[in-house]
Amino acid sequence: MGVPVVEAVGVTKRFGATVALREAGITVEAGESHALVGRNGAGKSTLVSLLTGLQQPDAGSIRFAGEPAPAVGDTAAWRGKVACVYQRSTVVPDLTVAENLFLNRQSVNRQSSNRQGGSALRPIRWRALRARAAELLAEYGVDVDPGARIARLTVEQRQFVEIARALSFGARFIVLDEPTAKLDARGIERLFAKLRELQAQGVAFLFISHHLQEVYDLCTRVTVFRDARHILTAPVAELGHDALVEAMTGESGAPAPAGTVGMVRAGRSDAGRGAALLEVDGLTLPGSFADVSLTVCAGEVVGLAGATASGCVQLGETVAGLHRPRGGRIAVGGRGLRPGDIPAALSAGVGFVPEDRHLQGLVANRSVAENATLTVTDQLGPYGTVLPARTRAFARRMIDDLDIRTPDAVTPVAALSGGNQQKVVVARALATEPRVLVAIRPTNGVDVKSKEFLLGRFRRHADEGHAALIVSDELDDLRGCDRVVAMFHGRVAAEFPAGWSDDQVVAAMEGLTTSEQHETKERSAHGGHD
Amino acid sequence: MAATTDAGSTASGAAAPSAATATAAAPTGRRIDLARYRDLSLVPVLLVLGVIGFIVSPAFLTSANLLGVAQQSTELSLLVLGEALILITGKMDLSLESTIGVGPVVAMWLVLPSHGGRFQGLGLLPTWTAIPLCLLTGALIGAVNGFLILKLRLNGFIVTLGGLTMLRGLQVALSQGQSIVEVPNSFLYLGETSWLGAPAAVWICLVLFAVGGAALAWLRHGRALYAIGGNAEAARTAGIRVDRITWSVLVVGSVLAAFAGVLYTGHYGSISADQGSGWIFQVFAATVIGGVSLNGGKGTLFGALTGVLTLQLVVNVMTLAGVPPLWNQFLNGAIIIVALVISRYASGEKQE
Lengths: 530, 352
Hints:
Chain B: It is found in: Cell membrane. Chain B: Pfam families: BPD_transp_2. Chain B: GO terms for molecular function: transmembrane transporter activity. Chain B: It is a multi-pass membrane protein. The structure holds 2 protein chains of 2 kinds. By secondary structure, chain A is an alpha/beta fold. Chain A is built from 18 helices and 20 strands. Chain A folds into 4 domains: 165 residues, Rossmann fold (3-Layer(aba) Sandwich), CATH 3.40.50.300; 79 residues, no CATH class; 186 residues, P-loop containing nucleotide triphosphate hydrolases (Rossmann fold); 71 residues, no CATH class. In chain A, 32% of the residues lie in helices and 23% in strands. The radius of gyration of chain A is 25 Å and the shape is globular. Chain B has one domain: ABC transporter involved in vitamin B12 uptake, BtuC. In chain B, strand 2 and strand 3 form a beta hairpin. At the A-B interface, strand 10, helix 10 and helix 11 of A face strand 1, helix 1, helix 2, helix 10 and helix 11 of B. Strand 10 of chain A pairs antiparallel with strand 1 of chain B, so a sheet runs across the interface.
């Protein structure tokens, strides 16, 4: 192997009293896909900010292809070395692909296009700009119209554009910070195909993900951080799932079955099942799903699997009252639910963990206590009052119940780590002691430990005689469910009892059904439900 | 390539998380404490103004002067009360400054006789209905704003900017551009009476602020305003009826503005065609320097009230110091900017 594209040795970074990174290091070779994993707070983001020149290490050295890193603040020099594709997009959604690619260097001519600026007074030649953009995209095999507005692209296309832009600055090392968090299975496949293609051209990637399966699918080596330290670096092929999780959590001998990071499977029989708590009958929401029927019984955790476009998320949201269905019926505990009415769903006993905690789950600048009790303000005092003492007591109970790591109940949720924020959202849903809990992608962007905890908490909720519906496309979320219902293109494609294989469920989510199943589906599509 | 492992990391693994949590918690706690006192950040400013006033003129610390300042603050503070509620909910209402004028004018147009006086009313309703009519006009304006913003999903800023202009025009048209000097007695009573040695308007204002503050602190629908302003979608998924509550807040804000019109009219005994004109800048300034966020979800009514008092006291102190009134506008602008800078550093938060 030649000189590594990036090499960080013994870097330490402190923020006040907190040591964010303690003598950690990482080495990424050219053309390598290197995974960086660790629980929230392990120091991954700090390392990224050091590697991308946003911050300066207190000690240690960073070298790019053998040369020392540019000075912090020399943006142009850093751009030529490294780029980072964040969870949140750094392109301007209302501008075209071409303009985003050459932002702030629109009028620079071809010869000096790697440099910033150019004459401020030189007018932009739009036709030439588009041509150069098309050329650049073609060079890296990105199939996107340079004249399209970014807002109209899919998430992975947007990421391709960001990667292409990074490469056009001359960077041969790209940090991908949870690039798959917002993608469905197909999008991930396309992204990975593109990354492998670029890898073959010598581009190196540092891949950060909470989704360990992706690490095995894409990466050659993996580095584990824990508690601000470097724990290990090893070829992915030599490191089993258990060993990897152990390195991340620092706990050995988790008795989970090989390859599972989920909750302990219940393996209960049908006899233990109670009455039907959630009944969905012939539900239709135009543009999302049609004629879906589904039952969840007391004591049961049911998984609803499906890709982004399958309509499973919208189905979960409809049960919670976010959308008003065109046809069909939802019943909780045998009583029909007023369609499209969130307060009605809540009072009927539906708890809801929304898909995106930032957009729908949390009021970021308000306290943990306030967020956790947002659904139960009617229980916190007489005559429509909300008594602070009762709010605090209630919040403390939820904080204990869900093991939320927060300095105080009055801390704004924005100050919490992702996993703990998600626990606040779950607390909010569980606060009403719902008979039916609907959780949409409940472990999205959550560290392994919290993930395990949350899934275990859902199981406990079911064991207490309630029902839980987990909507997700992550197999780890679905592994502990009593049943998994797979959706494809707005219809129920298949149903699996516990003990399914990954291949079966993924195949059903991807619409790869046998011809027999396909026929059944067609029939039910035309003949209504009976 | 061989796996490299840090020695000793396993041993420290168990102890490290709790230590990390503790160290991370300390700075967070300090910052929040400061942020919690954000609403009080103008209190020292008020005290300093008091001291300056005391030094500048012996007339400052007299009950006549201070009650005068309080009475002059009442109309502005009611607008600020309404605007603070609306801003906390994450909306904006510019039309309040026209409501303060058009409310009383519409009421008088309906109750004053069609002949005899200088102002030609319709004389449709008995005179005692003037105040209820004025408040009703405010409620109607708020309801229409709510309809445009929440049902038609129009931009609140532009809708209420249109409302501001339109309502001002309505007032000018109804009053034919003249001041109305025949004011019903009920208006005059509220504007001129004293209860327990202080003007009635001051008491009413204090009560309204106390009621509003208590509602925001201890009522579930009051708490809901913060949730809606902080993240409307999260509030919606938590079962809060976002549109209904926002609509109510817009109506309450306009009613408060109309009531401010009653007090103002009663206080000065007439309505001029430009009553309230240009006030909205002061309203926003007082609200924002008092710690209410323009982005919603943050702030208290107490903070907003200190904002009003700061603006009024500065003018009062300057007047007593003999600064010509022509400089008032300049000083008002300057104090807004200075107060913003102070609160920016007092709270350590950016004000975007």
